[in-house]
Amino acid sequence: MSSPNEYSPPKVWQWDTENGGAFVKINRPTAGATHEKELPIGKNPLQLYSLATPNGVKVTVLLEELLALGYSGAEYDAWLCRIRDGQQFGSGFVSINPNSKIPALLDCSDGKQQRVFESGAILLYLSEKFGAFMPTKVDERTECLSWLFWQMASAPYLGGGFGHFYAYAPEKFEYPINRFAMETKRQLDLLDQRLSQTEFIAGSSYTIADMAIWAWYGQLCLGRLYEAAEFLDVGSYKNLMSWSEKIDAREAVKRGRMVNRVSGELSSQLHERHHPTDFDLRTEDKLSQ
Ligand SMILES: N[C@@H](CCC(=O)N[C@@H](CS)C(=O)NCC(=O)O)C(=O)O
Fold first, then answer.
1. Strand ranges inside the chain, DSSP E
2. I want to staple 201 with a disulfide (CB 3.0 to 4.6 A). Which of 29, 62, 110, 209 is the partner?
3. Which atom of ligand 1 is nearest to the CA of 102?
4. Is 45 exposed, middle or buried (0-12, 13-18, 19+ CB in 10 A)?
């Protein structure tokens, strides 16, 4: 192992704003709004404030899947929240998500304004509202919820643990990279074993558990997160890999990935989505012409 560093924690932790790392400008030890900023509200029943990270993509994939099934009540305005610029700390955003993280949803249907935060809660809320992508049989429904909660509890080890230390930390530290690579590979093996038994995560049907898990672990296997596919030897998880590719090929998933996306090819970036035709007419390559 590389040599341990010399750090010894002080008696009382102090906020060191110069501690480096990719998110140094937005991380802070207090909650709440830092500035006044109202949120825009569009004409559609659902208002989403988000960014195309895995947590954001879960929700836009579900919304596009609902629309593909013909649920017009799932029409949505997706507004871009640039978290690196601290937009999640504006007063309007905080009033919808006091935790200041994307995604955040405001359901303006039926003359009310219902806020929903936490991506897992948003998936559950929408699947219950429309009665879709959640099995009705109690055993598969229970599996679906178990795996959905598993994803919410496990992905922070992948993102906040492995991804942070492998890709974003100011230096490569062997101890945390080893620790979180071990846990990430254990999670990948778990999913691979599960998918050797069932076609989809909860059983025989495609559910919100697949969407939640695909956004993180599927995209990791497809080489889209942290440039870590080789390091984690994702190709060795054969069942997980073929499930990842199968979900990736769905048209609604392709659309969902484009919404609120600010990196990659311009033709794949739809910064704001207000209408189904935006995928053809308002991607960044078209707007910059
Ligand atoms: N458990 C939350 C996590 C959301 C989350 O971590 N969002 C990140 C982007 S993926 C974020 O908004 N980060 C901004 C910040 O931490 O200030 C969920 O699933 O909704």
1. 46-50, 76-80, 104-107, 114-117
2. 209
3. 12
4. middle
| CATH 3.10.20.310 assigned to 138-255 | no
- Give the bridge partners for 273, in sequence order: 78
Q: What does the alpha-carbon distance between residue 16 and residue 285 come to, in Å, rounded to a whole number?
A: 40
Q: Put residue 15 in one of left, alpha, beta given phi > 0 → left and psi -120 to 50 → alpha.
A: beta
Using alpha carbons, list the distances in angstroms from residue 255 to 51, 180, 191, 240, 251.
14, 31, 25, 22, 6
Return the residue whose CA atom lies nearest to atom 16 of ligand 1. 101
Domain residue spans in the chain?
138-255
Asked if 31 and 100 count as a contact pair (C-beta separation under 8 A), the reply is: yes
Per DSSP, the three-state class of 9 is coil
Q: How far apart are CA 102 and CA 96, in angstroms?
A: 10
pLDDT at 288: 74
Mean pLDDT by 10 residues, the chain (289 residues): 74 79 77 96 98 98 98 98 96 98 97 96 98 96 98 98 96 96 98 98 97 98 97 98 98 98 97 98 90
Q: Is the CB of 184 under 6 A from ligand 1?
A: no
